[in-house]
Amino acid sequence: MSVDEFAPVATQPQRGAVRSRIVEVAAEMLRESGAAALTTRRVADAAGVQAPTIYRLFGDKDGLVDAVAEHVLGEFVARKTALPAGTDPVEALRDGWRQQLDYALTNPELHRLLGEAGRSRRSPALDAGLAVLRSRIHGLAAAGLLRVDEQRALGIIRAAATGTVQQLLDSPPADRDPGLAEAMLEAVLGRILVPGFDSAAEAPGPALDGPRSAAIALAAQLDAFPAFSAAERRLLAEWLSRAVEDQDATGH
């Protein structure tokens, strides 16, 4: 009896086990043979189920691909999140950059699939990964190391990482510049960090880059002031944001 013959009366654990096996088989197939090989028939055969089982569990091929993406990305995000307490915020960002590029180059087919229109916007795992990046940027801001606001830093990092990954994936492996990723990382850090500091350990205080970095650092730590009401914190956050924008506009 095949697995899907008992599907109408399968228990939730049984259905979960079947679903997990299909996702793992599909993920391996995607890594080894590429997206073109990821057909419902081939996945069903490799997983030892009938094709209708995939439609019952995932809806269609897109649903299966989404599940594979969540599986692989979920494992990656879990590893990315695990950093020792007290890790230097600059080193945490460096670590995240390197992990992200390693993930994309190790899973090029999945990376390309996630780049398809609309798919990335419905990925909880991608949202979780973005939350990790935001938290690391917030750590830089709280340490007084950011020379741009947190949202700008996020945009710069994501744009640079996307472009770097695309350049490397578009190049044959033998032609890839092995130093490109690190060079881009240093360029990003040079743009978002206050001048002259590569780690929080070197930072003597929050006013490293004058009023701009002081305002960014204070904005990142407003929750540490319980004497302010929520409305007061929002107002102060708005004032600080305007102060940073004014510094950017005047070049001071």
Amino-to-carboxy terminus distance: 74 Å
CATH topology category name of the largest domain: Tetracycline Repressor, domain 2
Number of helices: 11
- Spell out the CATH superfamily of the largest domain: Tetracycline Repressor, domain 2
Low-pLDDT stretches are 1-9, 199-207
CATH class of the largest domain: Mainly Alpha
DSSP strand content: under 5%
Q: What's the CATH architecture name of the largest domain?
A: Orthogonal Bundle
Written overview of the protein:
The protein has 11 helices and 1 strand; from the N terminus they run H-H-H-H-H-H-H-H-H-E-H-H. Helix 4 (61-81) packs parallel to helix 7 (124-142). The chain is elongated. It is mostly helical and 252 residues long. It folds into 2 domains: 1-59, Homeodomain-like (Arc Repressor Mutant, subunit A); 62-204, Tetracycline Repressor, domain 2, CATH 1.10.357. This is AcrR family transcriptional regulator. One of its GO terms (molecular function) is transcription cis-regulatory region binding. Residues 39-58 bind DNA.
Q: How would the blueprint of this fold be written?
A:
Layout: H1 12-33, H2 40-47, H3 51-58, H4 61-81, H5 89-106, H6 108-114, H7 124-142, H8 150-170, H9 180-192, E1 208-210, H10 211-220, H11 230-250
Helix pairs in contact: 1-2, 1-4, 3-4, 4-7, 5-7, 5-8, 7-10, 8-9, 10-11
